Automatic annotation (TrEMBL):
SUPFAM superfamilies: P-loop containing nucleoside triphosphate hydrolases
Protein name, as recorded: Nucleoside/nucleotide kinase family protein
PANTHER family found in the cross-reference section: URIDINE KINASE (PTHR10285)
Organism listed in the record: Nocardioides plantarum
Keyword terms: Kinase, Transferase
Signal sequence segment: none
Keyword tRNA-binding: no
Molecular function GO terms recorded: kinase activity
KW Transferase (keyword) present: yes
Length: 186
């Protein structure tokens, strides 16, 4: 793996299940997950998006951009939200972000060419797109859905109905990455 660059904010992106969260955690830096900006179910219901959980419009992209701006500004006492995979809900005030030093942020939609996502990208110094063999990625994604409560059939259906379309969006944005990192499939 390449050495992480000496910047305040390194962004990791890539398709669902590619291994962003795992890779980010291995870097030994504080991690701000884009997933913390999932709208809660109560807001998804209001927007009529509950069944589409995970598509770009189900995230508070402006809230994410605003928090990254505070991190960039070196504001003290920034505490980022996390995403609880058991509750399947965001959790406010979960991750303390130091005012100085390198920080990683990771999520699928960092490079989408839409104003609300470009605002987030503008706060990140360098973005790496992670790529993994598609069959391996989908296999791991199905296994993770099963680990968190779906049956294998439900998991495969969810990957086909929701995750695959999101993966195509993310791969189409890879050309805007500063670097594409090919992850080993083994
Ligand atoms: N190098 C690896 N070898 C084997 N399994 C891995 C590896 N990296 C990640 N995984 C597994 O693959 C699954 C997906 O990884 P991870 O949650 O890090 O992906 P992600 O890109 O953050 O997914 P999402 O977009 O859904 O947040 C997890 O179950 C994780 O444990
Ligand atoms: Mg993740």
């Amino acid at each position: 793996m390449p050495a992480p660059p000496p910047v305040r904010l390194l962004g990791l992106t890539g398709a669902p299940g590619v291994g962003k969260s795992t890779y980010a955690a291995s870097l030994g830096r504080p991690v701000v997950p884009m997933d913390g900006f999932h709208y809660a179910d109560v807001e998804l219901v209001r927007r009529g998006l509950l069944s589409a959980k995970g598509v770009p419009d189900t995230f508070d992209a402006p809230g994410y951009a605003a928090l990254l701006r505070r991190v960039r500004a070196g504001e003290p006492d920034v505490v980022a939200p996390s995403f609880d995979r058991v509750l399947e809900q965001p959790l406010a005030g979960a991750i303390a972000v130091p005012a100085t030093g390198p920080v990683v942020t990771e999520g699928s939609y960092l490079l989408l060419d839409e104003p609300r996502w470009r605002a987030a990208r503008a706060q990140i110094d360098v973005v790496w797109h992670l790529h993994l063999d598609d069959a391996v990625r989908r296999e791991r994604l199905v296994a993770r859905h099963v680990e968190f409560g779906k049956t294998p059939d439900e998991a495969r259906a969810w990957v086909s109905r929701v995750d695959d379309a999101n993966a195509r969006l993310v791969e189409a944005a890879a050309a805007r990455a500063d670097l594409v990192v090919e992850l080993p499939a083994g």
